[in-house]
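Quick one:
INPUT:
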């Protein structure tokens, strides 16, 4: 049984990386940067959040990543629900602030 704060195992990480491939290059670049920064510390909970975000259309995802919209502003109810989970918001914040100095 996986606990939410347990680190993601290598096989699950590989599957998640494959699942995160997107049609828009901009999304791919931002997601690849996220993996470069966080893959060694990615938790099961964060993987669920990333999977929730991958349910979005490419355009909705890009709007969220670039802060053009917030999850509650997405037009489709399913998109709002997927982008508004606790885990999705946690990962969205990591994705949005990866350029900030630490």
């Amino acid at each position: 049984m996986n606990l939410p704060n347990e680190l993601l195992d290598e096989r699950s990480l590989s599957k998640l990386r494959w699942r995160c491939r997107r049609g828009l290059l901009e999304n791919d670049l931002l997601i690849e940067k996220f993996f470069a920064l966080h893959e060694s510390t990615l938790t099961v909970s964060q993987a669920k959040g990333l999977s929730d975000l991958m349910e979005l259309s490419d355009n909705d995802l890009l709007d969220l990543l670039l802060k053009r919209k917030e999850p509650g502003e997405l037009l489709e109810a399913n998109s709002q629900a997927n982008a508004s989970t606790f885990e999705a918001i946690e990962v969205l914040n990591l994705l949005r602030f990866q350029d900030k100095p630490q």
